[in-house]
Write a structure and sequence with these properties.
123 residues, alpha/beta, Rossmann fold
Length: 123
Amino acid sequence: MKLRILIVEDDEVSAFVSKTVVEQSGYCDSPVIVDNGQAALDYLIANDVDLILLDISMPVLDGFQFMDLKKAKYPKLEVPVVMLSSSDREQEQVRMKSYPEILDYSMKPLKKDFLSSVVNRLN
């Protein structure tokens, strides 16, 4: 099953790694990459997405600001989200639990077996 995956990542290396993992997994041939939460929201409003891989720390709108704004302004845009972070802060993990759309959390870089486990839960 091919998914429509949106990668929200401001770091070019991390975005490249996530894109490569997604493509090599076979779940999506051409994931869309945007570099901040506002661009992700704009994309989501105009396009269907099956899964969002969302960085926490970004300019313009970070991952949590994106989630809050999406919930406040566009509550019907319910898309499963995986949060990605380069830090392992407990407070971030606790905060993520307050968002029902957040399926999971992973440290960067994204790994193929982790992505597979997430996609299996979507089915």
